[in-house]
C-alpha cells in the first residue's frame, strides 16, 4: 500500500503499553496506576482526534505488517473505523475516570486496570483493522481480555458467568474463524472496502459464499447478542458497573455490531448482500431479537439485568438498520452505534452509582431515589427517554432515520417492530423513572454520612453527568457539523455514492 | 432572537425552580415573565428563522391560525404563572411544580412556533411528558391514577403520531410541516396517514373515543395547571390536526363525515355526561371535550374541500382562542369561591358568568362571534347532511348552557368567606378576564378577509350592530339555563347529585379497566404457564448453561482424560489418526 504511518499503531500502543505496565506495578501504587491509566486514555483521545482531523483533510494512514506471505496485519483508517475508534476512546476515558472512583479501595486493581486497558486496545484494534484477518485477531483478543473483567469479583456467580461468557464467545470465535479462513480460501485476502472481490466471485461460488456469510455472521452475532446467541450478556452483568458499562456501550457488543456493519458494507457489499437475500434473514433475526430482548427486560427486577436485556434489544437496532437497504436506515444504524453507546453507558453508570451509594440493586428499591441522587437519576431519565425514542435525546435521531428509512424501503413491518419496541421500552424504563421521581421512599433511609454536598463521589458523578449531557446534545444539535449524525451521514454517502 | 427566547426563557424558568434557594422557587413573576416573548410573537408579526444547528435543521415561523393560538397560549401561561405563584405559596412542592410548569410551557410554545416536523414533534413530546408532573402534582392516589392513565394514553398517541409523521415526511419528501398537506392530498395513502394523525393527536384533543383520560387528568392538576391543560395544551392537538389536514385541497367525504359525526358525538355526549359530575373541574373537563367537538366538526368540514383554508383555519383558531381564554378563566375560577368575599364576589360572579356565556356563544361575548363563524361555514358547505348539522349546532347551545349553569351552581354551593377579602391570585384572574374580553373588541388581531366574510361588513362594529340576526343564540342558551334553574328550584325534580357523582368521571375507562382486569388475570396465568413451559425446554441458552456447568463438564473431561492415559488407547488412536491423514493426503 501507499505510505506507511505509525500513527494507527501508536493509537493501539497508547493503551497497550499502559496496560502491560500496570501489570508490573504493586497493588498500592495508586498514583502511578492512575497516572498511567489517564495518560493512556487522554493520549488515545488526542491521537484519535488528531488522526480524525488529518483524515478529514484528506490524509491517509496505513500500517501494514506482513505476518506471512499473503497474510498481512493491516491497520487502515477509514471514516467508519475512525467513528468507532472515536467512540471507544472517548468513552474509555470517561469510563476510566468512573472505574477509578468505583474501584477505589477494592481488590486486584492492577489486574483490573491492566485488562481494562487491553480490552480497549482490542476494541480500537477492531475499529482500525484494515482487513478481515486483522479484525479477527483483535476480535479474539477482545474475548480474552474481557474475561478477567467479567469474573473480576471472583464470586461463584461471577466465575459461573465468566464460564458462560467464554463458552459463548470462544464458540463464536471458532465459528468466525471457520468463516474467515473460508473467505480467505475462496477470495484471498480481503481488505475492507474491496467489495468488488466478492461481487466478482458470487456467481462462481454462490453456495460457498452464502455459507461463509452466515458463518461469519453467526460468529459476530454472538458478541452482538443476536437471538439465540445472546445468553451470555444478561449473565455477565455480574461484572462491576464500569465493566458492564464498557461491555454494553463500547467494547464487546459494539464489536459484534460493528463487525456486522463491516461484513455487509465492506466485505460483501450491500448489492451482493441484498441480491442474495442475506439481508432479509438478518432482518428477521434482528427484529425478533429487538422484541424478545424488550419482553425479557420487562420481567427483570434486577436493575442491571433489565439494562442488559435492553442492550440485547437495542443492539439489534443496528443490525436491523444494516439489514434494510437504503441510505436512511444505514445512517440510523451507524449513528446508533454511538447513540446507544452514550445512552447505555449513562444508564449503567447510574445503576452503578445507586448501587455504590445506597446499595440498591433491585428496581423495587428505587422509590424516591431521584430526590437523593438528582443528577444521577436526571441523567438516567434523559437516557431512558432516549431509549424510548423521545426527542430531542439521541435515540430519537436514530429511530427517526431507521423508521423513515423503513418506510422508504416499503418495509412497513419494520416500522411496527420499532413501534412495539418503543412501547416496550416505555413499559420497562418509565416505571424506573416513576419510582425515582414520584414515589416516596418505602422506609426512612439512613442518609450516608458524606463529606461535601455531592450526592456521590465526584468521580462517579462526573462521568454520568457528562454522558447524560452528551446523550442529550447529540440529539439536540444533530444537524451541527461534527455531531454523530453528521459523521454517520458522511460515512453513508460514501457507501451509497450519493 | 425572539424565537429562541420564546423557548429558552420557559426552560430557564424551569431550571430556576430547581436551582434557586428554596424560598424563591416558584415565583409567579418568573413564570409569567417567561411567557412574554411568546406574547410578543403573538401580537407582533415577526419573520421566521432557520436554525441549521438545532435537531435536524429547524425552522420557526408562524401563520395566522397558529399566531392566534400562540397568543392564546401565551396569555394563559402568563396568567396561570402569576396565579400559581400565589395559589401554591404554601405548597411544599411548589419548586417541583414550577419545574414541570416551565418545561411544559417551553414545549407548548415550541410546538406552536415550529415549522418543521422534528422540532414540532420534539416540543410536542416535551409538553406531553412534562405535563405528567403537573397532573401528578398532588400525589394523591387518584392523581397518580389519573397521571398514569394519561401517560399510557399519551404514549399510545405518540406511537400513532410518529407513524403518521414517518409516512407523511416520506410522501412529502420534506421535513417542513407546510409541505405535508399538499403531499397528503396527492398521495393515495393520504387519508390513511391523516387517520393515523387523527388518532395520534386525538388523544391530546380529547376526541371520541380517546378522551377518557381527560376528565381524570385535567381536574387532578392544581387549578392553574388545569387551566393551561384545558385551555392551551388541548389546542396543541388541534394544531397538529391542522398541520396534517389538506383543507381545501381534497374531497374526503368519508373522513369529513367521520370527523363531523365524532365531533357532534363529543358535543352532546360529553355535555350530558358532564352533568352527572359534582366536581366543578370534572364538569369543566367534560365541557372541554364537548367544545373540542365543535372544533373537530369545523376541521371535518374542511376535509370536504369547499371551504378555503385561509378562511377556515383562522376561524378554528379563533374558536380555540375564545374557548381557551374562557375555559382557563373558569378552571382558575374554581379556586375563587372559597377565598373571595364581599364586594369582590360580585366581580367574581360577573367574570365567571361571562366565561360561561362566552363558551355557550352568548351575546356580547367572543363566543357569539366564533359560534356564528361555525354557522357560516355550515351554511356554506355542501357536505351531505349540512342542514342537520346546523340544527345540531343550534341545539348544542342548550346542552352547553345546561352543563355550564350546572357548573355555576356547583361553585355557588361553596361557602364564601366573610368580609371583603380576595386572595393575591385574584388579580391574575381579573387580568385574564380582561384579556379574554379585550379581543372581542379588537379588529386588529383578525385577518380582515375573514372578518368581512363572516359579517358581510367591513368593520367589527358593524358586526355587532347586526346582533339581532344572532338573537337565536340567546334563547337557546336561555332554554338551558331555565331548565337548570327549574330542576334546582323544585327539589323534587332535582336529579343532580350533590355529594358523589352519579356516574364516575372518566366513564369508559372504568369499563376498559374492568374488562382489562377480567382479561388480565387469565392472561397473566397463561403467560406464566407458557413461560415455565418454555423454560423447561432446553433452549439454546439452556444448552450452553448445561455445557458450561463445571461439574458435568469436568466429569466428562476427566473420563476422557482417564481414557487418554491408557497407552494402548493412545496408540490405537494415533494409528487411526495417521491412517486417516494418509488416506486424505494420498
UniProtKB/TrEMBL annotation, chain A:
Domain NADH:quinone oxidoreductase/Mrp antiporter transmembrane: 129-423
Transmembrane segments: 6-25, 37-57, 77-100, 112-139, 165-192, 212-233, 245-265, 277-295, 315-338, 379-401, 413-437, 458-480
Membrane topology: Multi-pass membrane protein
Keyword Cell membrane carried by entry: no
Record's GO cellular component terms: endomembrane system; membrane
Localisation: Endomembrane system; Membrane
Keywords assigned: Membrane, Transmembrane, Transmembrane helix
Xref: PANTHER family: NA(+)/H(+) ANTIPORTER SUBUNIT (PTHR43373), NA(+)_H(+) ANTIPORTER SUBUNIT A (PTHR43373:SF1)
Stated name of the protein: Proton-conducting membrane transporter
TrEMBL record, chain B:
GO biological process, one term: ATP synthesis coupled electron transport
Protein name per its UniProtKB record: NADH-ubiquinone oxidoreductase
TM annotation in the entry: 38-56, 68-88, 108-135, 147-169, 192-214, 226-246, 252-272, 284-305, 311-334, 346-369, 389-409, 421-441, 471-490, 567-585
Positions of the NADH:quinone oxidoreductase/Mrp antiporter transmembrane domain: 114-334
Similarity section: Belongs to the CPA3 antiporters (TC 2.A.63) subunit D family.
A Pfam family hit: Proton_antipo_M
Native organism: Marinilabilia rubra
Secretion signal, residue range per the UniProt entry: none
Presence of keyword Endoplasmic reticulum: no
Primary localization: membrane
Compartments where located: Cell membrane; Membrane
Amino acid at each position: 500500500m501507499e505510505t506507511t504511518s505509525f500513527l494507527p499503531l501508536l493509537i493501539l500502543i497508547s493503551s497497550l503499553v499502559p496496560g502491560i505496565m500496570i501489570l508490573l506495578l504493586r497493588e498500592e501504587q495508586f498514583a502511578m496506576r492512575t497516572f498511567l491509566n489517564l495518560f493512556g486514555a487522554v493520549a488515545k483521545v488526542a491521537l484519535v482526534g488528531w488522526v480524525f482531523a488529518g483524515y478529514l483533510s484528506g490524509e491517509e494512514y496505513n500500517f501494514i505488517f506482513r505476518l506471512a506471505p499473503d497474510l498481512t496485519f493491516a491497520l487502515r483508517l477509514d471514516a467508519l473505523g475512525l467513528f468507532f475508534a472515536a467512540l471507544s476512546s472517548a468513552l474509555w476515558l470517561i469510563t476510566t475516570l468512573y472505574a477509578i472512583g468505583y474501584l477505589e479501595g477494592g481488590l486486584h486493581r492492577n489486574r483490573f486496570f491492566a485488562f481494562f486497558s487491553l480490552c480497549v486496545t482490542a476494541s480500537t484494534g477492531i475499529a482500525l483493522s484494515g482487513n478481515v484477518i486483522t479484525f479477527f485477531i483483535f476480535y479474539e483478543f477482545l474475548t480474552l481480555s474481557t474475561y478477567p473483567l467479567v469474573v473480576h469479583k471472583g464470586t461463584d456467580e461471577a466465575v459461573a458467568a465468566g464460564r458462560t461468557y467464554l463458552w459463548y464467545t470462544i464458540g463464536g470465535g471458532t465459528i468466525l474463524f471457520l468463516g474467515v479462513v473460508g473467505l480467505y480460501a475462496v477470495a484471498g485476502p480481503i481488505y475492507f472496502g474491496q467489495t468488488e472481490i466478492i461481487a466478482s466471485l458470487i456467481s462462481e461460488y454462490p453456495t460457498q459464499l452464502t455459507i461463509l456469510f452466515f458463518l461469519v455472521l453467526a460468529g459476530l452475532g454472538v458478541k452482538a447478542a443476536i437471538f439465540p446467541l445472546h445468553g451470555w450478556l444478561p449473565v455477565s452483568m455480574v461484572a462491576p458497573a464500569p465493566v458492564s458499562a464498557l461491555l454494553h456501550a463500547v467494547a464487546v457488543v459494539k464489536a459484534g455490531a460493528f463487525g456486522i456493519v463491516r461484513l455487509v458494507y465492506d466485505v460483501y457489499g450491500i448489492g451482493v448482500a441484498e441480491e442474495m437475500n442475506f439481508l432479509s434473514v438478518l432482518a428477521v433475526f434482528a427484529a425478533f431479537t429487538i422484541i424478545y430482548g424488550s419482553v425479557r427486560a420487562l420481567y427483570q427486577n434486577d436493575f442491571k439485568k433489565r439494562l442488559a436485556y435492553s442492550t440485547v434489544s437495542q443492539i439489534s437496532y443496528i443490525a436491523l438498520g444494516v439489514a434494510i437497504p437504503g441510505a436512511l436506515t444505514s445512517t440510523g444504524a451507524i449513528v446508533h452505534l454511538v447513540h446507544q453507546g452514550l445512552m447505555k453507558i449513562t444508564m449503567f453508570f447510574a445503576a452503578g452509582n445507586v448501587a455504590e451509594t445506597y446499595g440498591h440493586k433491585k428496581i423495587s428499591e428505587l422509590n424516591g431515589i431521584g430526590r437523593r441522587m438528582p443528577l444521577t437519576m436526571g441523567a438516567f431519565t434523559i437516557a431512558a427517554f432516549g431509549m424510548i425514542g423521545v426527542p430531542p435525546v439521541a435515540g430519537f435521531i436514530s429511530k427517526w432515520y431507521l423508521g423513515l428509512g423503513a418506510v422508504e424501503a416499503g418495509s412497513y413491518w419494520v416500522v411496527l417492530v420499532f413501534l412495539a419496541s418503543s412501547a416496550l421500552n416505555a413499559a420497562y424504563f418509565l416505571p424506573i423513572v416513576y419510582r425515582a421521581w414520584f414515589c416516596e421512599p418505602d422506609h426512612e433511609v439512613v442518609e450516608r454520612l458524606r463529606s461535601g454536598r455531592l450526592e456521590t463521589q465526584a468521580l462517579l458523578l462526573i462521568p454520568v453527568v457528562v454522558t447524560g449531557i452528551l446523550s442529550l446534545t447529540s440529539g439536540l444539535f444533530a444537524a451541527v457539523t461534527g455531531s454523530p449524525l453528521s459523521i454517520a451521514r458522511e460515512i453513508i454517502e460514501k457507501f451509497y455514492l450519493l | 432572537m425572539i424565537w429562541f427566547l420564546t423557548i429558552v426563557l420557559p426552560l430557564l424558568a424551569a431550571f430556576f425552580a430547581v436551582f434557586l434557594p428554596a424560598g424563591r422557587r416558584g415565583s409567579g413573576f418568573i413564570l409569567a415573565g417567561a411567557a412574554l416573548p411568546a406574547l410578543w410573537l403573538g401580537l407582533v408579526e415577526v419573520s421566521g428563522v432557520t436554525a441549521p444547528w438545532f435537531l435536524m435543521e429547524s425552522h420557526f415561523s408562524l401563520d395566522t391560525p397558529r399566531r392566534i393560538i400562540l397568543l392564546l397560549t401565551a396569555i394563559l401561561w402568563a396568567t396561570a404563572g402569576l396565579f400559581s405563584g400565589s395559589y401554591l405559596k404554601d405548597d411544599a412542592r411548589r419548586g417541583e411544580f414550577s419545574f414541570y410548569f416551565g418545561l411544559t410551557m417551553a414545549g407548548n410554545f415550541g410546538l406552536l412556533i415550529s415549522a418543521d416536523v422534528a422540532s414540532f414533534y420534539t416540543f410536542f413530546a416535551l409538553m406531553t411528558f412534562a405535563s405528567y408532573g403537573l397532573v401528578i402534582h398532588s400525589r394523591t392516589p387518584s392523581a397518580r391514577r389519573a397521571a398514569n392513565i394519561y401517560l399510557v394514553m399519551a404514549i399510545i398517541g405518540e406511537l400513532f403520531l410518529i407513524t403518521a409523521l414517518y409516512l407523511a415526511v416520506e410522501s412529502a419528501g420534506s421535513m417542513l410541516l407546510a409541505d405535508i398537506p399538499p403531499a397528503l392530498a396527492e398521495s393515495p395513502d393520504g387519508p390513511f396517514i391523516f387517520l393515523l394523525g387523527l388518532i395520534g393527536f386525538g388523544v391530546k384533543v380529547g376526541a371520541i373515543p380517546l378522551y377518557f383520560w381527560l376528565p381524570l387528568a385535567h381536574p387532578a392538576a392544581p387549578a392553574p395547571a388545569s387551566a393551561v391543560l384545558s385551555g392551551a395544551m388541548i389546542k396543541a392537538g388541534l394544531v397538529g390536526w391542522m398541520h396534517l389536514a389538506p383543507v381545501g385541497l381534497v374531497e374526503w367525504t368519508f373522513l369529513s363525515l367521520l370527523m363531523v359525526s365524532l365531533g357532534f358525538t363529543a358535543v352532546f355526549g360529553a355535555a350530558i355526561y358532564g352533568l352527572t359530575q359534582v366536581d366543578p373541574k370534572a364538569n369543566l373537563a367534560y365541557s372541554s371535550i364537548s367544545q373540542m367537538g365543535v372544533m373537530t366538526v369545523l376541521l371535518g368540514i374542511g376535509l370536504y374541500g369547499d371551504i378555503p383554508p385561509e378562511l377556515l383555519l383562522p376561524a378554528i383558531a379563533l374558536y380555540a382562542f375564545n374557548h381557551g381564554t374562557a375555559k382557563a378563566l373558569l378552571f382558575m375560577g374554581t379556586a375563587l369561591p372559597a377565598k373571595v368575599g364581599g364586594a369582590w364576589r360580585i366581580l367574581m360572579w360577573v367574570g365567571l358568568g361571562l366565561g360561561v356565556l362566552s363558551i355557550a356563544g352568548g351575546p356580547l361575548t367572543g363566543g357569539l362571534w366564533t359560534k356564528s363563524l361555525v354557522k357560516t361555514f355550515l351554511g356554506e358547505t355542501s357536505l351531505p347532511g349540512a342542514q342537520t348539522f346546523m340544527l345540531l349546532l343550534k341545539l348544542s347551545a342548550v346542552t352547553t348552557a345546561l352543563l355550564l349553569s350546572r357548573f355555576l351552581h356547583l361553585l355557588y354551593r361553596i361557602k364564601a368567606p366573610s368580609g371583603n377579602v380576595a386572595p393575591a391570585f385574584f388579580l391574575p384572574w381579573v387580568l385574564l378576564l380582561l384579556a379574554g374580553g379585550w379581543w372581542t373588541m379588537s379588529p386588529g388581531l383578525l385577518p380582515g378577509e375573514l372578518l368581512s366574510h363572516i359579517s358581510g361588513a367591513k368593520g367589527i362594529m358593524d358586526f355587532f350592530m347586526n346582533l339581532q340576526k344572532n338573537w337565536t343564540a340567546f334563547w337557546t342558551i336561555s332554554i338551558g339555563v331555565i331548565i337548570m334553574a327549574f330542576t334546582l328550584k323544585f327539589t323534587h325534580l332535582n336529579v343532580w347529585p350533590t355529594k358523589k357523582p352519579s356516574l364516575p368521571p372518566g366513564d369508559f375507562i372504568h369499563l376498559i379497566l374492568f374488562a382489562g382486569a377480567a382479561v388480565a388475570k387469565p392472561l397473566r396465568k397463561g403467560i406464566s404457564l407458557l413461560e415455565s413451559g418454555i423454560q423447561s425446554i432446553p433452549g439454546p441458552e439452556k444448552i450452553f448453561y448445561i455445557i458450561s456447568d463445571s461439574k458435568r463438564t469436568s466429569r466428562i473431561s476427566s473420563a476422557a482424560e482417564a481414557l487418554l492415559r491408557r497407552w494402548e488407547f493412545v496408540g490405537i488412536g494415533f494409528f487411526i489418526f495417521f491412517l486417516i491423514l494418509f488416506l486424505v493426503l494420498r
